[in-house]
User: Fold these one by one.
Assistant:
Number 1:
Amino acid sequence: MKLDMIIQLTQLIHKLTAQNKWTEAFDELRTLHYPDVANVLEQLSPDVAYQLLRRFEPGKRSHLFAYMQIDAAIAIFQLMNHAEAVALFEDMDHDVRADFYNRLSETERKELLAGLTPAERDDIRKLAAYAEKTVGAVMTSAYVAVQDSLTVEQALARIRAVASDAEVIYQIYIVDEAGRLSGTLSLRELLTAELSKVLRDIMVQDVVSINIDEDQEEAAKLIARYDFLALPVVDNEQRLLGIVTHADALDVSQEENTEDQMRMGSVSTDFPMATSLKNASIWLLYRMRVFWLVVLVFGNIFSGAGIAHFEDLIESMVTLVFFLPLLIDSGGNAGSQSATLMVRALAMGDVRARDWSKMLAKELAVSLLLGLTTATAVSVLGFYRGGVEIAMIVAVTMVIVVMVGSVIGMLLPFVLARLKFDPASASAPLITSICDGTGVLIYFSIASVFLDMPSV
């Protein structure tokens, strides 16, 4: 549903609920897809959203919660009675409820666990215990696994018995007596096989899996690379512990892309990614942005120091000041472009750390062409403002600052990756600040040479 339709529907729901027409309001929601219903509920006050949500069947409530922003979902959850909260958790997907469980207070957790079966309590505690950003934190335990000693007929009977609780049944995982992942079969392969065949004799043994302690981004990359519907998760002994679904991988990719964008904007990512910007507090937004902003303020001192160093030159040729923002911004822009391309290439695995020298040679050639093109344009303006001498100064400076900025933007992600930092930390503001200080020194040094004046 389009955004304008969501807004109109939300306004209608507001109007109907204000008039105490709850049945009519619910009728407007009940035929929508889950993401659209969740979007509308997020726009309403928690008490109104709760009254509408409880009119849905219990199984549908859990699906709606999976699509809601976590802060909005918790606000509604806190209005539920104990029986409603327990029923909601029983119907939730295993990985979703584990993540939701981690957002609750200690008191809420104890009250909730008291109403669940021992098996469900153990499952939630186990999944919720894995460290954030690891594969274990995003995997689900709702999968289908059968022993390799079973026949096809026995395996199909087992699958029928557990299929209703599994998130993915298109791929069947096969384990040995110790629970180690030994093979896999698609549901199609299983249905078309002879019923008397033993699984170990027909299974595909070359299984792509991932360790539970790996970074969740690696799971998303593997699923994208092999076009999997799900990826099996194992421990150090190759015992099957769960799966990461294609939907979970999409969520991980979206979260990682969001973090990269925030880093590229010099915004801290040490805060919950699920927090809605609309509902975030002023204090939270301040803390997310203040650190890097202060760091960059001190970084820009070098630009001021460079200008102060060439005060005599500036006083004798005021025209130079006109071109200063244009030139140093061009270096920063070129560096930001280069860094953006390189961060993306490193994240996608298209470029490796060992490729830096090859990429440097290519970047020097590209930046030279870019510098010559922009220098041609700026030299015309330089000639108009100050004659041939100024035109030469700004043209040469433009070529050099664009090349230097591009090389800095290209190399910084490699350096950060080598130091085990996220390459996305080579953010546009950081590169711009570095290029600003460098550009000032380059510009006035070249001007000193052309104007035959000492720089000190």
Number 2:
Amino acid sequence: MELSLKHQLGLVCVILLFPALCNCKQSFTKSRATYYSTPDGYGTPNGACGFRDYGRTIQGGSVAAVAGLWRNGAGCGACYRVWCTVPGLCNNSGAIVLATDYGQGDRTDFIMSPRAFAKLGRDAKSSAELVKYGVVDIGFERVSCKYPGQNIMFHVQESSNNPGYFAVVLLYVDGAFDVSAVEMYLKNTREWMPLRRVSGAVFDYQNPPSGEIYLRFQVSGSAGVYWKQPKIPIPGNWKAGATYDSKIQI
């Protein structure tokens, strides 16, 4: 049966307009999200990833705790675009959040900081209404975290004690990649030795070698699995709580 010209034109209009009307995503996962409370709306410095204050304010405080996406700590630092699906209240762009903590909710993949959760609404009034929901249906997809001009940093954990104990967390790694392993070079044996993943994104090594510390880290993502090795070592007089520039980016 042939369609009239009027019906043909109407069908073309529907096809052309449909993507805009449905806010379609190429590939995404359906889930649920909720939020936790902080006095200033930012993240928490006590997140299980070990990011400390970095995990509180990174992404403008647009961070989240994850459960299934945690992957024994390998999911720390991953970035996701999250958007809610409540009619009339949710905007189209949603929020970019960075995983900084572990947390389980009511069948949720994300427990978001207040600042991140507020970005789901169309405006301040809509965001306030979403807060009343407590838990909202969402879609999400993994995306890159962009840190223009920012090198990857080595933060020596406060629990470290030169020269007896060394613990480190990597900061500003592109959130589209997982850091799956960290190794330290031992000059006396000329070999790379693995650091232990303590928890989250924190790796440690008992009785590290004296002098400069050379690290390399393994990343995995859409481009495969490979090692990144900074040419700049951590200085021999490293201190607990200090942050050192790797001079490289992903």
Number 3:
Amino acid sequence: MGEQIESSWKKQLQTEIEQPYFKELTDFVQQEYATTTCYPAEKEIFAAFDWSNFDSTKVVIIGQDPYHGPKQANGLCFSVQDTIPHPPSLINIFKEIATDINVPYPKSGNLERWAKQGVLLLNATLTVRAHEAGSHQKKGWETFTDAVIQKISDEKEGIVFLLWGGFAKKKTKLIDVTKHHVLTSGHPSPLSANRGYWFGNKHFSGTNAILTSMGKDPIKW
């Protein structure tokens, strides 16, 4: 499974890929895909790395699990395939963008357009069994994706990390906050957003202000 990872990331993560747990994870995932319906499609498991290579990554958004409904997940956290109805959290993300930076609500929920600009859309768990949320948690994915965050923190500077909700905020411990920027808020899910923990966080204008201050191109959200 490690051979699927984009080359610049694979170079950074080679030691991790060679760990025994990753072999066990690979065996588990291959067995699951061979015997049950899983998401995203096998070729999209590492899509987040394909679109935003190690050198170009400048923003990191951390999700938890891929969507577990048909034709939704495409390997990028919070993102769905073109023409698929937007899930509730994604709707709230787009609403916040609209009010924060006055960008019209988009037709497509496919966030490849962000990833191509250097936004790493990383789920903590990269696969899931159909209709069974969390079914591939605690199988090794979290160890791998934590290593990704740690590697970004160690090897890069000035990355903007967007940590939404309690789960994502726990990743702060992996990040050197003296050389990176960490923006936190509630999760965009309706439960959190309707309690006032999401809307008005201005993370999208805030991210662009940080990037611009460092001489980097802002993200076209």
Number 4:
Amino acid sequence: ILLLRMPARYASATSLLVMSINMAVAGLGRIPQFAAGLDVDWLVVALFTAGSALGSIGGETAGRRIPDRIATILFGVLLLAVAAGTLASDLL
């Protein structure tokens, strides 16, 4: 965001696209396990899918109302929180 002077909404949209591609590839990589009888809790899959869809709709609505400067700060705070959580998880 800072180096390329990219608006936060483009950065977060790009991040979501990359995560979606990553999830699709990971899902394709699991096809042999599904074929071998991997047990999937479809209720959990449905809840995550519904939550993602609702979050996407809510994020789109909020993104149109939040100024780019505030969105950049919020995006940075979110990234720091995820990094701190990942570090804490690895250390514990």
